[in-house]
Design goal:
It is built from 15 helices and no strands. By secondary structure, the chain is mostly helical. It has 2 domains: 34 residues; 227 residues, MetI-like fold, CATH 1.10.3720. The N terminus is likely disordered.
């Protein structure tokens, strides 16, 4: 007996994308394109131009420029200042953030506004204010002369200027973390007999870890790139107060373009790697 086999073809219903969804996709792509163009214009294009200018005369010219004694000295001076600034802000910035969140006191709003002052004041103005205080004819000049201390046009002045311009970063990174952390775990630790230092070291500080790391990273990157304030208070004296940014300024003024571009690339790459490395470490942990 022969069986008849019939094949039934089932066609899937035609899915029509609603116009609203189509418009949403195009709006999303347009928005991403605008963001990429914006970042490319302000960040990528200058970096490409800087790299092209540095390597215009070949890799050998870049290595020769970066190996000059005054260039190396300026980089070491910048690194020293940045490490001192990061250490100071890591300690006192954490204390300030903790006090701002955990205590309510008279003048708190004023202090909160003063913390953001470096964002509003030009670094050149900040350097000039320090010069009015510590310069040869400054308000504190008689005291400094008596104590035989030199701040203006010396390394201490550069450190003070960099401390000022990088002040908010550590504090502003830690304040929201402390606010989100709350006080319940600290109170529980105190109930179990922990003293203030033990509570901070074993309970509070681990909770602040990534806020602390980001604050240190941003402070370090900001300290590396400071120019205006250190130029005014330090004077850019070659071999004495010339940091890497001041060397770049001098090299451009003297038309040593390869040296200026090469030093700028080193600074930029170091800051970029520092920030990207922090992000990668956090993503790897999570």
């Amino acid at each position: 007996m022969n069986s008849l086999m019939t094949t039934k073809v089932i066609t899937a219903p035609l899915v029509v994308t609603p116009p609203a969804i189509q418009h949403g996709v195009w709006r999303r792509r347009l928005l991403i394109g605008i963001v990429m163009a914006y970042a490319g214009l302000l960040i990528i294009a200058p970096l490409v131009g800087l790299t092209a200018g540095a390597f215009r005369e070949g890799v050998g010219a870049v290595i020769t420029a970066l190996s000059q004694p005054d260039v190396l000295a300026s980089f070491w001076r910048t690194l020293l200042v940045s490490l001192i600034v990061v250490t100071v802000h890591a300690i006192f910035g954490t204390v300030v953030a903790w006090v701002m969140v955990r205590h309510d006191f008279r003048g708190r709003n004023l202090l909160n506004g003063l913390i953001d002052m470096p964002f509003a004041v030009s670094p050149v103005v900040a350097g000039y204010m320090l010069l009015l205080l510590f310069g040869r004819n400054g308000f504190l000049a008689p005291l400094l002369t008596t104590l035989d201390i030199r701040i203006a046009f010396a390394l201490p002045g550069i450190i003070l200027a960099t401390l000022f311009v990088s002040l908010p970063f550590m504090i502003r990174e830690l304040i929201p973390v402390l606010e989100a952390f709350g006080v319940k775990q600290e109170q529980a630790a105190a109930t179990l007999g922990a003293n203030g230092w033990q509570t901070f070291w074993y309970i509070t500080l681990p909770a602040l870890r990534w806020g602390f790391i980001y604050g240190v990273t941003l402070t370090f990157a900001r300290a590396l790139g400071e120019f205006g304030a250190v130029l005014v208070i330090g004077g850019g004296l070659q071999g004495s107060t010339e940091t890497s940014t001041l060397y770049i300024f001098r090299a451009l003024d003297e038309r040593q373009y390869v040296g200026a571009y090469s030093a700028a690339i080193v600074l930029g790459l170091f800051s970029l790697l520092l920030i990207m490395g922090t992000d990668l470490l956090r993503k790897k942990e999570h």
